[in-house]
Amino acid sequence: MLFSNDYFKVQANGISPFQTMVAYLGGSAFQTVIDNPITSYRQLVQQYAKDLNGQQVSPTIARQEANAIFRKAPISASLSGLGPRLIGVGFKRVPKFGFFLGISYFLNEGEQPGLAAATAASIFSAPFINPVRMVEKQQRAYFRETGAQKPLREILRESAGQNFRPLLRGTLPLMGHSLASATTGLVGQPILQRKIERELGAKSGMGQFGCNLVSSAMVTPIYVAMTNPLSRLEVIMQTNSIKDKPITLGEAVKEVARDSREFGLRGMFRGQGLGIAKAIVSLSMFHQGRLWLADSFKSYNRAKL
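Given the sequence above, the corresponding structure tokens read:
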């Protein structure tokens, strides 16, 4: 049971379930700080698929507008949404990692959780994760109009006027996004990294970080190809004004389809290259932070014996 004596008891792998959870959260916080500028820039590139008149524009123009925002306010743009994202390490990651590691623990999967745990965690954690992602995107949504991120209090006040229902916009695409992220990033990447460490690491002397980076780079194109269209749907549904009528999933799908008809695959996969860069950084930093903390806990536990 969660928070029972067994939850804090060191297991055969040299670390307790509680320490494993802390390692996952610490890795997530480290990754969040490092990848925030790329996350912010990617949202703007995807969001600016439309101009201020609501007309579709080419990916080149959208990228130029995002560049203009970053040139005008580089620090503000780079740090935008970081506060909610760091708070979200608790609000988002505790439910996700809690379901992920908890189900894996009950299934007795050992140190490496599997697909069943990833699937359940993606579905059940989405209602907890989505409000934080919504707030994060709303903070960046009006850079073009105001030149500054939207205050957190204003977002929460507008949401409270509608009983906080707007904070659940985009939950369905998030479930798919979260499932792809969990299966490739949380399950697939560690398996691939261990294989690379056994084969490439043993023959070339490549260390843990190098193997981590190689495995992340190999998994990332698959992950981004699966999630980029879903990310587009989230951005469309979560960046319009909270005061306006919400954009439905069907309307968001039609907008992406219209973008694809007009600009081809460049329209469908806006932000794809940025997504790959972000995912390589995110996955590498997350797992490196997680592994460092896990190894530190194992060393601490051995020293206590």
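The chain has one domain: 16-299. Try to locate this feature in the token string yourself.
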